[in-house]
Design brief:
Chain lengths: 208, 647
């Protein structure tokens, strides 16, 4: 488990998502990467019942990189509380359906090919919400290092090389405060949640 | 009352606890109101009982009883009452009717105008005492006859047991029951000797039957060996496939040229004929233990054979008949065989019997590995029944503790893959065999080097505590009498197929199973030790180290390692003597001495001034083997002492 950076890639006008994925796949294969299967990150959000006081949102995320785990993040105003549990947590959420209702129409996922290039692991995900294409998310992981500060320069250079100079590469909002801490899988999940929330807010494609 | 103690008094719980909340608070049921309590108590009244008594009274009072109230009460019981007083109301109404009728009857009787009550003479029972006496006598006689017959039989068998010292069936059965699982199926007693309850999942059953031994056989057995222990009154019958003796034979042998001959000779598993004594005369305990062992061996072998077929090793494992052949190290094979002699066929009927005798002597059965195999299967059984705690009611049963934690610890796919790998028994036993060979070979190499090399002493300490697949040896290289001056130590970890050597300088070398590598390493260490030791001796003697090099570039190329050298100068005030030592692992140690400036100087045409003598002169080699001294360091010490003494 290394440091992961999630970057949104804008889809050009009158081009499709598959075109962009193919373009990036060609670029990364030209660098000498090998494709290692597919990946999937999905997120489902549950709203608490209004009778329970202020409405809270629970996001349930799965990451194919951690196939045995279920990540849940409870949004309660200012603070986010996360719990990592095993697969049975999904069943628990079903039992709680009286108190937390699922917003089916906001189920969002990012899936696509997964590449390995030396110590890097690159995932090109096309984000879909209810089968509607929303955008492209590029995930780059540098596996030997667990400290974001130590590897951010390297990751930025790699991302710039891969995505081209027109894309501005900034450290993710979530990582800014945690640059000197040990990176854990939940940090990746937080980054996905940030992007997913942004995708949900805009209608149509997100290009910002 | 300064030291009074506060005593808190709490009223006992009068109300029932309805529920205990998660924070420990108890919620009581509200106490019943008066009317509710009354209704509850009224429902508890057993009206049927009083009804019965009432009926009895009625029977006495009136000759005929009407069945109606009974039916009604039954109906009341069946009907679910609409309100709590329903049944009570019905009962009371019935009672009122009865009482009214009784009052009417009493009134009528009292008036004496319509009815007169006369005492009725009770009906005379027809009792003829003699008939009764005879009947009872006959019945008692029949019962007594049954009892007497039983007593007679018991006494006879008891007498026979005591008189002829026959064992008691029931006592034996009790003993059997204490040690084995028994159950009664219709008229037979059946037991189970399988390891199912201990966690085995082997499909073969281990059912045996317990019967009473025929008396004539017991008599015969007793007459045969009167002095020996009494024969058992039990007869235990085990299924024929579990009879006899079985064991797992483990052989390690050098690979032979022809694989076929290897299989033939390796089938030479010399089974012991049978257990001491013939099968029928065995005590049931030994018989059952033997059968259980047969079952265990069969399970072990079945498991190993299945694994051997499933595993895809670089050199495939072979399963031929009751033999598994696996390659441990190049040229060395591990043979695991199941020997089962069920005592029915004569071992000499086997045509290979004669051949096997000869082959068995060559490679003998490895008891340690056999024991390890047994241990491994027992560990599997144990793991089948003992799941790691905690097991939550909702969680799945069976995964390891690491796997349970994998979800909450967000283990990634590689870790999960790693967890799913499970070593089979065969792999584990092959690893143990590999380690066994590596250990034996390393021992051999170290011992032979210690025998060959006398000058620095080579002492190896094997750790007494080791695992079946790893052990550790510490090697000390030192010279006799100089162990305080210099000693070189290194540690060798013996693994399954590799050796890990940690040298004194902290370098770690990984060696393969080819033990020439270890041999070369130790030789290099020996010469390195000699060089460092001679420098240490020189320091003690006050000599100066001018130069030293562990890897000389000059001279012929060495087959292993590099030549090393060092140059020492005699103590400071004179400082005119030099010793040069060159050490080549293939040649040995050479020592040269030189003196500069020489004491006597004769000017020649080429060298006209004495100052040129300071450049150093010609070295002369010392014949070390002619020198006095116990070992190389001792010789060097004497040499230094001799050279530094003013002469």
């Amino acid at each position: 488990m290394g440091v992961t950076v999630l970057q949104q890639y804008p889809v050009p006008e009158n081009k499709t998502g598959t075109y962009v994925i193919e373009l990036l796949s060609k670029r990364i294969l030209a660098l000498g990467a090998t494709q290692q299967g597919q990946f999937l990150v999905d997120c489902e959000s549950y709203l608490s019942h209004p009778q329970m006081g202020t409405t809270k949102t629970v996001h349930i995320l799965h990451n194919s990189e951690q196939p045995a785990s279920v990540f849940s993040i409870l949004e309660s105003g200012t603070k986010n509380i996360h719990v990592i549990a095993d697969g049975l947590f999904d069943l628990l959420m079903m039992k709680l359906s009286q108190h937390y209702t699922s917003k089916k129409q906001t189920k969002i996922e990012s899936k696509g090919p997964r590449f390995e290039l030396g110590d890097f692991c690159v995932k090109l995900g096309s984000v879909t919400m209810n089968q509607n294409f929303k955008g492209i998310l590029v995930e780059v992981e540098y596996r030997p290092c667990v400290m974001a500060n130590a590897v951010w320069g390297l990751l930025r250079e790699f991302l710039q090389g891969l995505l081209g100079p027109t894309i501005p590469v900034q450290p993710p909002q979530h990582l800014l405060s945690r640059m000197n801490e040990i990176y854990t899988p939940i940090d990746t999940v937080y980054q996905y949640l940030e992007h997913f929330s942004a995708y949900r807010k805009v209608t149509g494609m997100r290009n910002a | 009352m300064a030291n009074s103690v506060n005593i808190s008094i709490e009223a006992p719980i009068e109300n029932q606890i309805q529920e205990i909340t998660y924070d420990g608070q108890e919620i009581y049921q509200a106490p019943l109101s008066m009317s509710e309590n009354l209704a509850r108590l009224a429902q508890k009244i057993d009206f049927s009982k009083s009804d019965d008594e009432f009926c009895n009274i009625k029977k006495e009072g009136e000759s005929s009883t009407d069945p109606k109230p009974d039916e009604e009460s039954k109906d009341a019981g069946y009907q679910s009452s609409l309100w709590p007083w329903e049944s009570v109301r019905n009962k009371l109404r019935n009672a009122l009717t009865e009482v009214c009728v009784l009052a009417d009857v009493l009134n009528i009787a009292k008036e004496k105008r319509y009815m007169v009550l006369d005492p009725v003479q009770p009906e005379q029972v027809d009792n003829r005492p003699m008939v009764q006496v005879y009947g009872r006598k006959k019945a008692l006689g029949a019962a007594a006859a049954v009892l007497l017959a039983g007593v007679e039989r018991l006494r006879a068998s008891e007498n026979m047991r005591i008189n002829r010292n026959m064992p008691d069936f029931h006592i034996d059965l009790l003993r059997l029951r204490q040690n084995w699982r028994l159950k009664k199926v219709s008229n037979t007693i059946v037991g189970d000797l399988s390891y199912r309850t201990a966690g085995s999942k082997f499909s073969q059953t281990g059912v045996f039957e317990v019967t009473k031994a025929p008396e004539d056989q017991m008599m015969q057995a007793m007459s045969l060996n009167a002095a020996g222990p009494a024969p058992s009154a039990l007869r235990v019958t085990v299924p024929p496939e579990l009879q006899g003796v079985a064991f797992i034979s483990v052989l390690c042998q050098k690979e032979q040229e022809d694989v076929v001959t290897a299989t033939l000779s390796s089938s030479a598993l010399n089974c012991p004929g049978t257990l001491p004594g013939d099968g029928a005369e065995l005590h049931w305990q030994q018989k059952l233990e033997a059968a259980q062992n047969v079952l265990f061996c069969k399970e072990l072998f079945a498991r190993l054979a299945a694994e051997a077929v499933q595993l895809d090793a670089s050199i495939p494992h072979m399963v031929v008949g009751n033999q598994i052949m696996a390659t441990v190290l190049p040229g060395i094979q591990l043979l695991i065989g199941l020997c089962h002699n069920n005592g029915q066929n004569n071992p000499n009927a086997n045509p290979e019997g004669v051949k096997t005798e000869g082959a068995a002597g060559k490679s003998d059965h490895d008891h340690v590995l056999e024991h390890s195999l047994h241990q491994l299967l027992r560990a599997v059984h144990y793991a089948n029944t003992h799941h790691p705690f905690p097991h939550p009611a909702t969680g799945p049963l069976g995964p390891s503790k690491r796997r349970c934690l994998a979800g909450p610890m967000a283990a990634d796919r590689y870790e999960l893959l790693d967890m799913s790998k499970e070593q089979s028994l065969l792999e584990q036993i092959i690893q143990q065999a590999q380690h066994f060979f590596m250990r034996r070979r390393s021992e051999y190499v170290l011992d032979t080097i210690a025998k060959e090399v006398k000058d620095p002493l080579i002492v190896s300490h094997w750790n007494a505590l080791n695992s079946p697949t790893q052990s550790c040896v510490k090697i000390n290289i030192m010279a006799y009498g100089y162990d305080a001056v210099c000693r070189t130590s290194l540690v060798v970890h013996v693994g399954e197929k590799t050796l890990k050597c940690i040298c004194r300088d902290g370098k770690v070398r990984h060696l393969s199973y080819e033990l020439q590598e270890l041999r070369d390493l130790i030789y290099c260490q020996i010469y390195q030790h000699q060089m460092t030791a001679v420098q240490a001796v020189g320091r003690c003697m006050g000599w100066q180290l001018l130069a030293s090099s562990a890897h000389l570039g000059s001279g012929p190329v060495e087959p292993l390692g590099n030549a090393a050298s060092c140059l020492l100068a005699s103590p400071a005030p004179a400082g005119d003597r030099m010793i040069a030592i060159r050490c080549e692992p293939s040649v040995g140690i050479q020592v040269f001495i030189a003196q500069s400036p020489r004491k006597d100087f004769f000017s020649s045409e080429l060298v006209q001034d004495k100052k040129w003598e300071n450049l150093g002169g010609a070295f002369k080699e010392i014949k070390l083997d002619k020198m006095e001294g116990k070992n190389f360091l001792n010789k060097m010490e004497l040499l230094m002492a001799c050279l530094s003494s003013p002469s």
